Amino acid sequence: DAGVIQSPRHEVTEMGQEVTLRCKPISGHNSLFWYRQTMMRGLELLIYFNNNVPIDDSGMPEDRFSAKMPNASFSTLKIQPSEPRDSAVYFCASSQTLTEQYFGPGTRLTVT
Amino acid sequence: EDQVTQSPEALRLQEGESSSLNCSYTVSGLRGLFWYRQDPGKGPEFLFTLYSAGEEKEKERLKATLTKKESFLHITAPKPEDSATYLCAVRITDSWGKLQFGAGTQVVVTP
Q: Which residues from B are below 8 Å from A95, CB to CB?
């Protein structure tokens, strides 16, 4: 298996622009997680999907962030409009329900 | 409030110098403790899951143990390729699988 796939790997954008991050989970996994990692706050859970349904989005920082999972093999995390404080590494992870999570390589986002 | 604390924050070892990392937790009902390894510029890589006090898991030079209040990750005779940040995370009762991560221990092994 190719593991969790994320794109792009790096994104540099200007403040106010829309950013879309993409994730393809491991085939057969029914849980998908979006995380954000920064030096100051460590690894934070943003949102969790189970069977393509958002279960917990309490970690989404504000309305500028939105996530979708239209099918079992694809999810997006969108930031609109982006701000410099959104600069971080964003990880997608997948698992079968209540088992260990497998992380993708991450997307490094820089907002100038 | 549920908390996960890792110590030390950073650890510098000579090749072959064994040591241990600590992950202490205060959670209301543990449903699994997870260890991950993270290399610079990469996503966390799953290492072990521990479920009950007294449980131990091993993989190459790494051994993870669990008590009722903490977990240890023992690194035996480390090599430079063991250099990484080691993260622990806990899953608590009544959660759907949500993990709470510690801040990590950065390990550097020098030749």
A: 97
Q: Do B43 and A105 touch (CB under 8 A)?
A: yes
Q: b/e per residue, B27-46, with b = 16+ CB within 10 A?
A: beebebbbbbbbeeeebbeb
Least Cα distance to A91 among B46, B1, B26 occurs for B46
Residue B81 has φ and ψ, to the nearest 5°, of: -70, -5
Q: CB atoms < 10 A from the CB of A44, how many?
A: 15
Question: Measured between CA atoms, how close is B3 to chain A, in angstroms?
Answer: 13
pLDDT in tens, B51-102: 999 999 999 999 999 998 999 999 999 999 999 999 999 987 666 778 889 9
Residues in A whose CB is inside 8 Å of some CB of B read 4, 31, 42-43, 45, 48, 50, 55-56, 91, 93, 95, 97-98, 100-106
pLDDT, tens digit, 9 for 90 and up, residues B19-28: 999 999 988 7
